[in-house]
Write a structure and sequence with these properties.
This protein is an alpha+beta fold. It has 4 helices and 5 strands, in the order βααβββαβα.
Length: 136
């Protein structure tokens, strides 16, 4: 039985907004909070929550994206939030199953947190790139 359920953002926005704000404040990504909502409403991204967890403030937002240099697509874990710090261990098998069901050949994370990279490396994920940028 699945722990994660695909849900309508309009029903869960108030639950997930504090986590989105916390991620935005801590990691300073280029996206705006409105981009997250718009992407979910437009079907560009999907929101998954654990319906058995209360309160429902832990969530994962996924996006399918085409592979650039070969045919196929990957599943991007765009935003994930869980203050329990065990979410990667608890939900990664399910995320990988979702990726397989969507016909994705890999799962990707873009994260500034080294601890998540270390946790995922134990599960067979490999650090592929460092993104270095300078505002001009």
């Amino acid at each position: 039985m699945r722990m994660l359920s695909l849900v309508d953002v309009r029903l869960y926005w108030d639950d997930i907004l504090p986590g989105i704000i916390k991620i935005k404040d801590e990691s300073q990504p280029e996206w705006r909070i409105e981009d997250v909502y718009a992407s979910l409403i437009a079907g560009v991204a999907e929101l998954y929550v654990d319906l058995n967890q209360r309160p429902r403030n832990s969530f994962i937002i996924l996006q399918e994206k085409p592979l650039i240099f070969k045919p196929g697509k990957s599943l991007l874990v765009w935003i994930a939030f869980d203050e329990r710090a065990e979410a990667a261990k608890k939900y990664m098998d399910e995320v990988e199953t979702i990726a397989e069901e969507k016909g994705c050949s890999k799962v990707e994370f873009w994260t500034p947190w080294e601890g998540l990279v270390n946790t995922l490396s134990i599960r067979g994920y490999k650090l592929k790139y460092h993104i270095v940028e300078k505002e001009i």
